[in-house]
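Hey,
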Amino acid sequence: MTDKGRVNPRLIWVAAGAVVLGAVWLLAVAIPAGRKNDGIEKNPLLFSARRGPLVISVTESGTVSARDQVIISSEVEGSTTILSLVPEGTMVKEGELLIELDASEMEEEKFDQQLRVQNAEADYIRSRENLAITKSQAESDIEKAELAAEFAGQDLAKYEEGEFPQSRKEAEAKIKLSEEEFQRTDEKLKWSRVLFQEKYISETELQADELSLKKAELDLELAKGNRDLLLGFTHQRQMAQLKSDAKQTKMALERARRKGKANILQAEADLTAKEMDFRRQKDRLAETEDQIIKTKIRAPSDGQVVYATSVKRSRWHAADEPLQEGQTVREREDLIYLPETKHMKVVVKIHESNLDRIKVGMHARITSDAIPGRALTGCVDSIAPMPDPISVYLNPDLKVYDTQVHIDGDASDLRSGMTCEVVIIVETHRDVVYVPIQCVVRVDGKHTVYLVKDGQPSKKSITVGLDNNRMVHIIEGLTEGDEVMLAPPLEEAEVLEKEVAQPPPNETTPQQRPEHRTKTRPPGRGPRQGPGKKASTQTRGEKSPRTATE
């Protein structure tokens, strides 16, 4: 045997030693694996926590469409026939003729309508002049009645605001003077009686003072009587008379107005009828002329012609027949779409499990098989507030939300209807610790990983961020190089779940026992949210409706 074919004995011994060491290591791991409540598999798969860049993203497929497009539909009432039609796919400029519809019946209707308009206008002018004459006579009669009513109102205001207040003040003034005179004479009489007792004045002088007091008392009573007469009788009678005069003149004015209205009522009604008929005939003529104009449909902007029937056929239902010359079209029926070809968007359907991650303004990468080797950029422009009704109809358990991603720059090399892949960038980390998502479970309501120390699994609580369905961001609890189990033990979580679900007899429910309120729920597939957000309830092994890239 040559040297090339000879086996080195030293290599044989080295290989044998490696096999023995491997068997010893497997036994060392397998023996503790059989212990109760510490069970790990005989060959536990471990993963070393890594540190480096991590991209959290959501990837969905979508359909390209124009960001802005003009929908052209038939605005001709009823049904009409297509006389000419621009070929589909033609690039047109603003103002170019797209479709011409049959307008022969409308031209005949226009001529007849012009005659109706002329007759209606003549009747309207005649009624208008007749009404003007009638109104002039009525206004003259009303002015006389208004003047009489105005004078009566002034007389009432003159007495109520001028004469009566003056008379009342005079009566009050007389009462005031009489009261003061009475008080003065009364005081004088009191002193006179004192002086009379002291023999300072004569009895005649005392009697004169008593007479003065009686006179003052009578003057006071007379002043009060005049005031009461003014307020109780004179004022009321005068006010009633003046109010009656004002009311009668107002009634005369109202009769004059009603008489004037009665005189012009027929003329006014006739004018209204003639005016309405004239306007209706004019509106019909304008509508007919507008309908004739609408039979020639022109491009409102530049764009590429796309038949509406082609778009409908590519969606959920096929059109009755393709758009062509000689076809009958109905009012408001969509005929042509003019998409703007420079600025495009992608409509993707985001599953409800990823909806809380996506925000308006997030950046995105767009790729398409139609343009291999080229990646476009864009951003999330809008997210539908309600799930897609068609998806809900086909599958009530599937809730997806239409999300529009606007493509940056010129995307004229894309065409409406193309399928593309959109990667929405949720978070970008330059240097973070991360582990596979299946390494993380929930124990006692906390995110937990299992480390292996001395051959035994040891759980450790951690704080996590978002994941990309492959790797999860570890915020706190692990460092680079920590060995975590890819298949963590689930027995502890399962036992606790059974304890919560089946309480012993004659005891309160787990929700009522404080010690069970923090018990572990079944471990999840992994954290879907950051700290403080709602965690995912997917179990390990489930698949997300959409997969994301790392």
